[in-house]
Amino acid sequence: MFTIFGLGTVGLAVAQGAKAAGATRIIGIDIDNRKFDRAKDFGVTEFVNPKDHDKPTQQVLVDMTDGGVDYSFECIGNVSIMRAALELSSRTR
Question: Quick check: pTM over 0.85?
Answer without folding.
Answer: yes
